[in-house]
Amino acid sequence: MSLLEVKGLRRDFGALRAVDDVSFELEAGTVLGFIGPNGAGKSTTMRILATLDTPTAGEVLLDGYSLVDTPDKVRPLIGYMPDRYGTYDDVTVFEFLDFFARAYGLTGPVRARRLASVMEFTGLGPLADKLTHALSKGMKQRVALGRTLLHDPKLLILDEPADGLDPRARIELRELLRALADQGKAVLISSHILTELAEICDTCAIIEQGRLLATGKVADVLAQAAGTAVVELLVRLLPGAEGEEAWARAERLLWEQPHVKEVSREGQALRVRLEQEGAAAAWGDEVAARLLKVLVEAGVPVCAFGHRERNLEDAFMRVTRGRVA
Ligand SMILES: Nc1ncnc2c1ncn2[C@@H]1O[C@H](COP(=O)(O)OP(=O)(O)OP(=O)(O)O)[C@@H](O)[C@H]1O
After folding, report:
1. What is the distance between the alpha carbons of residues 90 and 315, in angstroms, rounded to a whole number?
2. SUPFAM superfamilies from the xrefs (predicted)?
3. Ligand 1 pocket check: which of 42, 209, 211, 324 to mutate, most ligand atoms within 8 Å of Cβ?
4. What is the mean pLDDT of residues 208-213?
5. Which protein residue's CA is at the shortest distance from atom 31 of ligand 1?
6. Which residues pair with 12 in a beta bridge?
7. Going by CA atoms, what residue is nearest to atom 24 of ligand 1?
8. Would 33 disulfide with which of 96, 121, 204, 303, CB 3.0-4.6 Å?
């Protein structure tokens, strides 16, 4: 049995169906990426899973308990970080976390141990006496994450935690989330930042207009959306007319090749898009080698040649149509 089972979840706001028959499961010790454009229904789903809203229809089981019928039973198991979280003026990092530890009902040595453990895990120890409102965005976000961990929940629901973070803070967040999954926690994380999620998620669910379009292991979702290979060519030109001629010859040659769907100029490079449904894993490499040979044999001065792997972003673009509810 999965730690979290979401079955046929629906949420209507008047005539608007914000969440439409959403079902997925999340195992302990894994990270599930919840991916979708603005207004897709991610926050609404997460709020329901955090027991802050009730579904119009459907069922959610957490550790075997119904979230709708027994919210008091499941709340201690959930750590929820909303997409907007506040800090307070004139409150230090320690005071902030201590306040919420008390709100969670932690007392005495247990509270002291949990606070110490969370401060250490999030690396907030050296900032214990800093005022929360004076922290950087990345550090504020760590405080918010620390807050969700105080009661040692089994399920973490994190609504766009990487939003607005600089690249370094994102990498650090990724490492923290991986460590939490390794501790056995189930992590549900939403984002628009697809490439970030691809690296930390074991499974993913792509949602649009309230409906799940693809769900499963990241590799399976990629396979579901398989068939699009993108090959990028960089062609440096010799100065003068001869260079322009080389560009034109390269473009013409590329358009003549099988599976080529797009050839465009991108700075000092030609970008070539080739597509084939259900292509074997080696197809991209084979086609790239063939194109390089054609260009070189035709005398086009290729000095760099790159191949972009399929990623979660490609899968997302393929299964969604970019519609917003
Ligand atoms: N309380 C509410 N009352 C009415 N409509 C709502 C309410 N909450 C959300 N919605 C609508 O439900 C739809 C889904 O919104 P939701 O916030 O869940 O999307 P999201 O995927 O989290 O988007 P974003 O990435 O922009 O946060 C939107 O059309 C939104 O306007």
Report:
1. 45
2. P-loop containing nucleoside triphosphate hydrolases
3. 42
4. 90
5. 39
6. 17
7. 38
8. 204
Distance 50 CA to ligand 1 centre (A): 15
* CA gap 126, 130 in Å, rounded: 9
Higher pLDDT, 285 or 160: 160
Separation CA 244–CA 270 (nearest Å): 13
| 8 A C-beta contact, residue 19 and residue 10 | yes
Instruction: Please give, one letter per residue, the 3-state secondary structure of 107-120.
Output: CHHHHHHHHHHHHH
* Token pair belonging to 286: 């084979």
217-276 pLDDT per residue, tens: 876 776 665 545 555 555 565 555 456 777 888 888 889 988 888 888 877 678 888 777
Phi, psi of 213 (to 5 degrees): -100, -30
Which helix or strand (DSSP H or E) is residue 294 part of? Answer: helix 283-297
Question: Which protein residues touch ligand 1 with a CB less than 6 Å away?
Answer: 13, 16, 18, 36, 38-44, 325
Cα(173)–Cα(211) distance, rounded to whole angstroms?
28
194 Cα to the center of ligand 1, angstroms: 19
Residue nearest to atom 9 of ligand 1 (CA): 44
Distance 47 CA to ligand 1 centre (A): 10
Q: For residues 212 and 210, give the distance between their C-alpha atoms in angstroms, rounded to a whole number.
A: 7
3 state DSSP class of 211:
strand
What ipTM was estimated for this complex?
0.96
Query: 230: CA distance to ligand 1 center in Å?
Result: 33
List of domains in the chain:
4-215 (3.40.50.300), 228-309 (3.30.70)
pLDDT reading at 14 higher than 70: yes
